[in-house]
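quick one
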Amino acid sequence: MIIVMKPRATKQQVDHVVAKIKALGLKPMVSRGTERTIIGVIGSEDAVRVQPLEIFAGVEKVMPVLKPFKLVSREFKPQSSVIDVDGLSIGGKRLVIMAGPCSVENRQMLMTAAKTAKQAGAHVLRGGAFKPRTSPYSFQGLGEEALKYLREAADATGLKVVTEVMDVRDVGIVSKYADILQIGARNMQNFNLLTEAGQAHKPVLLKRGLAATITEFLLAAEYILSRGNFDVILCERGIRAFEDQTRFTLDLSAVPVVKKLSHLPIIVDPSHATGYWDYVGSMAKAAVAAGADGLIIEVHPTPEMAMSDGPQSLLPEKFIALAKELKKVAAAVGRTL
Ligand code: PEP
Ligand code: MN
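structure w/ phosphoenolpyruvate:
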């Protein structure tokens, strides 16, 4: 349930309601907006039937949340969230572009990729240090060595770092080097990892599971918010369907649906969604037109030599050209890049 306080409710009135919620054995989540304070209540709502909260001073209304997700919902927070990544805003008028190789393979290639990303106007450097590979015999990533290269390349070029954390035990080490913790599609319902990320003091990029509904996706985000970390960026990266001409099927309608249901920003990954570099540009432009808050795109200096996802990686010059086209699409939908 959600408790909406009156616009001029005093701090004492908010504190009083919070104390009452706690006394009922429920967990209050206070969100102080510029207009008013909203209190999300987590736990069984049966207790509130005995003690109605409407009667408390300063309370405007008590709303049951009909949807299964609460803190991520627009009912809880009507205004769109803008996530601050150490000075970089995600979810505002300006689109955010994350770019880089699938995996960090060595220091040199990452530095080249970072320079390309910067030159094209990207804001965040991507690159896997811990790779979720279908086969145990495929390249699994360089681990901490890759995290060091990411930090070095990002600092040298003025970019932020996003990289995947696959294991609860690695949240600490990845947080030490990265600006954004990525939770991959295959871990979207790793509830222990979501809980741990909810306790980390870093923004989280949560990718949609290969076969997850939008409700399941938003409930996965709810895990992170329910632990107090409201800095979550969602990512649509394609879902499994019967079509096999593309690697996955990009569910672009997830963008407006998520925008309607949730206040969280959502970006699109056209690289993993399509699986082929040739389709990346079209779907990137479509995503911006559909209202996405940004893109995450795989770029590799020599895709034919890539240790993972070469076929879907853009050559530097192709990415730079795409960024120019994206500027025009962004302008057409009232955004900037
Ligand atoms: C990635 O972005 O590196 C990745 C593995 O993507 P996904 O989890 O969407 O498959
Ligand atoms: Mn990849």
